[in-house]
Amino acid sequence: MEGILNQLPIGLSIAAVLLLIALGLTFTFGQMGVINMAHGEFIMAGAYTAYLLQGFADRNAVLVALPVAFLVAGLMGLILERAAIRHFYGRPLDTLLLTWGVSLVLQQVARDLFGAPNVQVQSPTWLQGSLGPMPYNRMFILLLAVGSVVAIWVYMNRSAQGRRMQAVMQNRQLAATSGINTGRVDQRTFFIGSGLAGIAGVALTLIGPVGPTLGTYYIVDAFLVVVAGGLGQLRGAVIAALALGLLNSYAEFWTNASLAKVIVFVVIIAFLQFRPQGLFVLRSRALT
Amino acid sequence: MTATLEKPPVTEAPVKEPRDWRGPALFALVAVIGLVVMPLVLEPFRLGLLAKYLTYAIVALGIGLAWGQGGMLTLGQGVFFGLGGYAMGMHLKLNDAGDGLPDFMVWSGVETLPALWEPFRNPVFAIAMVVVVPGAIAWLLGTLVFRQRVRGAYFAILTQALAAAMVILLVGQQGLTGGTNGLTNFFEFFGQDVAADSTQRGLYFTVAIVLGVLFLGAWQLQRSRFGRLLLAVRDGEDRVRFLGYNPATVKTITFTLSAVMAGIAGALFVPIVGIISPALLGVVPSLELVVAVAIGGRFALAGAVLGAVLMGYAKTYFSEELPDAWLYLQGALFILVIGLAPKGIIGIISSLRRRKEAAA
User: Is the CB of residue B154 less than 8 Å from the CB of residue A228?
Assistant: First the structure.
């Protein structure tokens, strides 16, 4: 029983990180039909941002890093979108390979800049300790994800820009004929999505070391969240991330770490038998 | 009123186009180079490298079939490659161990041979598993996924997740699979010393002939009605369904074939390179081969083979000469090819030829 309780914070914090990563993916995939494999390297960039800021803010680096990492990763995403991805809209398979090339290059850049071995980011002293079975650092990650989801929800539903984003996601041509500058909207979505990956990277420094291949560990699972949650669906991403994070950590707990991923994979395939397009589907009459 | 009876336009009997011999001639030329010239001019070490690239080319052929012809981007071919490789590796390990246990099991404290291993003593069973296991898994996955019309990027992501899960599974089951090290230290291959030049030479001929046969088979498949149907599924799956075919069946069969090819390649890889380990079949090696196919030219089977061999050479050359620059180069190459020449080398060649013909 105690084991079950102890596993909960781990599962929840993994779910929170997955959610932060998957939000960016689900929107870029849903809105632009783009699969961005370099998304994992934006996580890595966020984590290294926290590492670098230690020289400046010492143990509070994590806090300072949150906005900075958002900007750094967001700008990287924006540059990638402008320079390459926008030429490939609607060709998800080509963008997948293209951005994988980008991700290889970025990993090598990180290796050259920071060295191949992992580095450690000191977590703030006020995050040490725990409330019952819930360590403060994992609680912090959870709060970060909740805060981000609320912010995204407000942005999407209460701001003019967010409504434009929804319009483009639902029907790009119609949105364009209604006078929406879809290119602009794409840039913004990409910026925000990549920025969230940067925040996820900062969160990851609280629970583990930072290395050039940090992003690759999470990107596959994050894509599974997108598949299970449904394209461009905030609700779907939240539920799927929670389910996947918890399933992952409990499968590890009850069987062993090596079987957990296989179990998750089988569950996803089984789930797709009932909901092949994910939990929530954007209804449309279009025939693909 | 005289209706002028016009003679109906004469439908000319279709002129039988002269068979294009350039393709078969090229194939014969490559076969002569591969089977006669290369073994004569290459020293054993280089011939071994070429044999390794040819096993990759077999995987690439499968990718070319599934992705280029069928539009299924599979990012998990490493899984099937690995299944074939491990089936072969298990047999070789047991053969070397004789009545004892394979060395790595002793190291990780396993005392009795796991039941899963026992039947692999039999070479016929092991070779059958090389084909059956990858085929069965691909068939099951394909049936479940394609039936639900899960396709495109979703399918790609699922195959990638499968590759990731497979690696973690293999690494974790140390006593069963050799963990991170995988299966290595083989001595004997069907009665021959596996490291001997003569064995390696024989293996080179085997892999070259297997590749040639599979290539001809895939070529024939591509020209058949089934091949036409596969192209149609790639370009308009719903239309094919409206015509009364079941696209899921077509895709499942093709995906299974590509998995079987990868399995065969894996089984040949093990005695040639002397190791099969999780690092050889994860997400990255699987993706690398897909990109090799893209570089060679995904819409032509020859492009897939060409791409895999070229990539193998490039990787060896640059990791020897400029190890640091290789990842940059590789990344830049992918970006350039996907961005500027999505049809790859074959695409560039055929567009050059068309331009020349247009000018003439």
Answer: no
